[in-house]
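Protocol check, entry for the methods section draft. Step 1: assemble the input record (protein sequence plus ligand SMILES). Step 2: submit for complex structure prediction. Step 3: store the structure tokens unaltered in the notebook. Ligand used here: zinc ion. Step 1 record:
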Amino acid sequence: MLAKSSTEIVRQQNSGLVLAALRRHGSLSHTDLSDRTGLSSATVSAITADLERHSIIEREEQAPPAGRGRPRVSFTHRRQSGYLVAVRISSDVMQYSLVDYGGTLIDRIDEVRHGHEESAARFPGILRAAVERLAARSALGLKEIGVVSISSKGLVDPADPVLLWSPVFGNDIIDFRDIRGGALQPDVLLSNETRLVAAALARLVERQAEGREEVLPRSLCALSLGHGIGLGIAQRDQAGEFQVSAPDFGHMLHVANGGLCRCGSIGCIEASAGFYGILRTAFEVPADTIPARFVPLIEMEKLAANARRGDRQAVLAFRQAGLALGQGLGRMQSLNGKMPVYITGPGVRFYDLMERGLTEGMGQSRAIRREGLPEIQIILDETALVFAGHLDLALGHMDRTAVSRAQGMMGEG
Ligand SMILES: [Zn+2]
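Step 3, stored output:
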């Protein structure tokens, strides 16, 4: 393969800038594109012509407001240029969403999980069948599915779409490239779920801060409360871009000789602050009891009602959970500096019961005593953030693939 010339690299980067600007704003005129990307008018013309020729973007013409003069032309992603399927794996349901290249949701399947029918070995086949069903329902060929973006709780390989540990499959490793078969040959992306939440929040904050550089934080984190505990961190790099990671926060050591965790370790944060940990404390079950695989939300609601009525053991269980989370966040702030914390997940509905323990736990770390408590915000709709994170990741990936494919074709021509 020939090395790319510097002109080709610059052209590829500029095409990326144009597509990123269109992603952010939906559709833009030639002049707006030039303003937002900082590229000259001539460069924008050359790039949009290229992208149009390769059916990556298309132009929309709108009649001038007064009915005379030239029509207003704007560019937008060409929706039918490709499709993605976002797959959200959670403890009780699977959600499959079919989305076009313009970012529009076309169809969605929600399936209740039947744990007993699933094994790590059969799981990719279950996903493949659902993706095929989605494509068929919209009369799409399997070749048109360019990306399958999957999210799960647990530990994800940093380089490949391989799930290393998850609450449901434990240490059974799943390589999601196995969903490929026959005409279905998408790029497969796998993300820790809270990492996607942090990425979506970073995008949201960026959008809010547009034109007001000073309010954009250096970093932020998302803490997801539920059966397990997830954490995603977004930190701006030297170029000002947010880089997102998902450290194994829920399985950081909270206390020596603490409760048995689902991961097999002793004393993880999750073993105190996950739903099963809270129940264990509330009912004074021995700390070495093997954790329940899944706790229905209704059980937690009952416990919370007891706590709100003043039941001392229930109050203590939520307080201990808050304390474990707060101490963990305090350690995190000691390592990474002060950053706003966005709390989300099904467990936020019990935040009122955990808040005091959480602030107390944070206050025990010197970094917090010195720099003060970080700003804490509660976000109720985690599902919407996970979905936004999927779109951000998968559409960005599709943009990069489209540009390099178009460039490859130009090289051949
Ligand atoms: Zn653990």
